């Protein structure tokens, strides 16, 4: 197994930059290794650094941190405070390791976001392109799945637009089509419908996962639709629609997925359409159902959501508002409990004072009666002494 060490290290620091810095994109070969270096500001030398995975920062899952760097044979992290560099090494790479990763530094303080830098890792079956060699084939009509050029914005990587017709597709032919983005809640389910051209009615359709088409891993196909409780695929040739349902969604299910149709013939690329699935913790449930299908020209409106699909930025704002509401609720609860406790204590104190006053009045009346009796006895005794006869 070939061992590939791809060391990316920033020797110089950008002027005025105080955030975490690293490469925006890294390519590596399946079975190999990759080492990624992230430079941080001097003020973070004593902070904990960590490595997490997730297309969106709000769904990032921590894999390893410098305060507990051991425990995984395929992943390691080291911090060099003298060089202000944290280094992450991933070994025995597989195609499903293709994802976005984040170097991050833990910032102490409530409400202070951690500093971070994202890097997209692409694991391929072929050796990665040499530095300076533009990846992919710029010629139109070539099979998609080429690695995007370095510096391509993430928004351009996950547009999910339907692929263009292959050279063998007649003019005016309709390729596989679906939604470009779907949001769903953790623990929920989502159903995605993909429309295909009539000429593909008898072809095998399949569902695969991967940020890039060339790294897409087939999860299920219509020629073997059974076998997984959390995933199902059905084909309706009459409606020219293939439907995929994913259940019990987890945060790590966030990825790009592809509806595809297998095209027979050597050198003929499969037809496909990509959709980006974002699974969030927010109380925002997005369930795409297969409704009455519109004509191919109106396909972008064929999948309807019971809740509005929100991009990661909207979800982040929603999480912020939820945190604020929870904090306000806790403060209101504490204030209410304090007021009830104070009122109860005050009532008990007043009752105690009234009880003491009543007891005092009773004792005072008793002493007064005794004093009156003594006075009367004294007066009688005095009168007897003054008039003995």
UniProtKB/TrEMBL annotation:
Residues 161-182 have a biased composition (Polar residues). Residues 118-182 are annotated as: Disordered. InterPro entries: CD300_family_receptors, Ig-like_dom, Ig-like_dom_sf, Ig-like_fold, Ig_sub, Ig_V-set. Keywords: Membrane, Signal, Transmembrane, Transmembrane helix. Residues 126-146 have a biased composition (Pro residues). Pfam families: V-set. This is Ig-like domain-containing protein.
């Amino acid at each position: 197994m070939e061992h590939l060490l791809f060391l990316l290290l920033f020797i110089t620091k950008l002027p005025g930059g105080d955030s975490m810095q690293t490469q925006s994109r890294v390519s590596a070969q399946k079975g190999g290794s990759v080492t990624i270096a992230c430079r941080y500001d001097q003020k973070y030398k004593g902070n904990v650094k960590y490595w997490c995975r997730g297309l969106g920062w709000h769904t990032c899952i921590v894999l390893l941190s410098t305060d507990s760097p051991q425990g995984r044979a395929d992943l390691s992290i080291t911090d060099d405070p003298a060089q202000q560099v944290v280094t992450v090494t991933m070994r025995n790479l597989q195609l499903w390791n293709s994802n976005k990763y984040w170097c991050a530094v833990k910032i102490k303080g409530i409400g202070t976001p951690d500093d971070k830098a994202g890097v997209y890792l692409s694991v391929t079956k072929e050796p990665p392109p040499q530095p300076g060699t533009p990846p992919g084939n710029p010629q139109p009509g070539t099979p998609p799945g080429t690695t995007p050029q370095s510096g391509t914005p993430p928004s351009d990587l996950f547009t999910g637009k339907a692929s263009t017709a292959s050279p063998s597709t007649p003019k005016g032919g309709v390729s596989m089509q679906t939604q470009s983005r779907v949001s769903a809640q953790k623990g929920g389910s989502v159903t995605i419908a993909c429309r295909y051209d009539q000429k593909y009615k008898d072809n095998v359709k399949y569902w695969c996962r991967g940020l890039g088409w060339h790294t897409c891993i087939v999860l299920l196909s219509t020629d073997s639709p059974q076998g997984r409780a959390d995933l199902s695929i059905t084909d309706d040739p009459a409606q020219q629609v293939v439907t995929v349902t994913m259940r019990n969604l987890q945060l790590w299910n966030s990825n790009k997925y592809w509806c595809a149709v297998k095209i027979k013939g050597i050198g003929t690329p499969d037809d496909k359409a990509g959709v980006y699935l974002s699974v969030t913790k927010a109380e925002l449930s997005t369930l795409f159902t297969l409704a009455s299908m519109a004509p191919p020209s109106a396909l972008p409106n064929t999948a309807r959501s019971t809740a509005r699909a929100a991009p990661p930025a909207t979800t982040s704002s929603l999480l912020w508002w939820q945190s604020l509401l929870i904090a306000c609720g806790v403060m209101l609860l504490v204030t209410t409990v304090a007021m009830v406790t104070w009122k109860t204590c005050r009532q008990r104190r007043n009752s105690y004072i009234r009880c003491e006053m009543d007891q005092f009045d009773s004792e005072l009346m008793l002493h007064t009666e005794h004093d009156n009796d003594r006075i009367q006895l004294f007066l009688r005794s005095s009168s007897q002494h003054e008039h003995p006869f």
